[in-house]
Amino acid sequence: MQYRLFLKVIVAVSLILKFSLFNVNAILEASTLEEKIKRHIQVLAVELGERNYLQHKNLGCAADYIQKEFKSYGYEPTEQVYTMENRPYRNIIATKPGKDKKDKIIIICAHYDSVVGSPGADDNASGVAALLELARLFSQLDLNKTLKFIAFTNEEPPFYLTEYMGSFRYAKEARKRKEDIKAVLCLESIGFYSDKNKSQSYPFGLSLFYPDKANFIAVISNLPSGYLLKRIVGEFKKASNFPVEYLIAPIFLAEAISFSDHWSFWKFGYRAVMVTDTAFYRNPYYHTQQDTADKLNYNNMLKVIRGLYKVVLNLSEY
Fold first, then answer.
1. Helix locations, the chain, DSSP H
2. DSSP structure class, residue 165
3. Crossing angle, helix 2-41 and helix 127-138, to 10 degrees?
4. What is the pTM of this model?
5. For a Cys staple, 199 with which of 82, 85, 214, 290, CB 3.0–4.6 Å?
6. What pLDDT sits at residue 318?
7. How far, in Å, CA of 305 to CA of 187, rounded?
8. Rounded to an integer, what distance in angstroms lies between the CA atom of residue 42 and that of residue 40?
């Protein structure tokens, strides 16, 4: 009898320790993840700052940093290089091959250039930080589908919505190779939030249907990508209580829904969504010198990344 009681006590203590360790590890992981996000943005938006075709050296250093980070996670990153005016521009690609469905591809992407005159903390060091941390979190997992984490160059003006975007060059070649891309998640400005009333604006007419506080993440798609969007939003809601809003619309009704790298994939018939804080519809520092690291809400970014982790996990397995 005493022996059985002793065993029960041991089991109970073991369970308590197990769950205590789990909770501690979860807290540490959150702390670690937030610090890593801050470090990425510190390098890109503070130490390097403006990075674009006019600040080509900084653009190259940003690409080098991203490539180095991918390598540190165990990837063997590749480059897609193209030339304009005798200068090289690079897309940096880290691939996690799938097991049973390795020909089926999920792409998570973000552009690493900033607009002329801005250090680009929200637009788009925030997206790159999320890209890098998702790549790190998935680096040790064996998944059914292939994941590609891609940092694109030249998303900003004067290249956006043209064939000179890094994403356009990639999507064009992917179509030529007949890549079976099942989903593209474009991470575009995900770091700026506010709980103030009337801090969120919208294209004409949409304010009637959406909240006026800029305290949510948005998922945007065109009509052909609508099913993918609904699946992503559904999985995000299962994994996180962080507020998420979405919009499925044709470009002619809201042109701004096309303003990032997902547009390139739409052009070549792939299903793609943009995950965004809505940029200039809430961030008064958008495309200015004041788009700095101190304006970002890192705790909310952490919540978004954790939700996206579950989304990508589901997409890659089923």
1. 2-41, 56-72, 127-138, 166-176, 226-239, 262-267, 298-317
2. S
3. 140
4. 0.91
5. 214
6. 86
7. 10
8. 5
Give the integer Cα–Cα distance in Å for 170 and 185: 14
What is the reported pLDDT for 32?
A: 86
CB 108 within 8 A of CB 131: yes
Other beta carbons within 10 angstroms of residue 59's beta carbon come to 24
Do you know the residue count of the chain?
318
Q: If one looks up domain 2-317 in CATH, what number appears?
A: 3.40.630.10
Position 114: which residue type?
Answer: S
Answer with the residue of higher pLDDT: 14 or 29.
Answer: 29
Token pair of 69 as six digits:
């980070």
| 26 pLDDT higher than 90 | no
Would you state the structure tokens that stand for residue 318, as one six-digit string? 């089923």
Q: Please report, for the chain, the start and end positions of each structural domain, with discontinuous segments joined by +.
A: 2-317
- Would residue 306 be called left, alpha or beta, if left means φ above 0 and alpha means ψ between -120 and 50 degrees? alpha
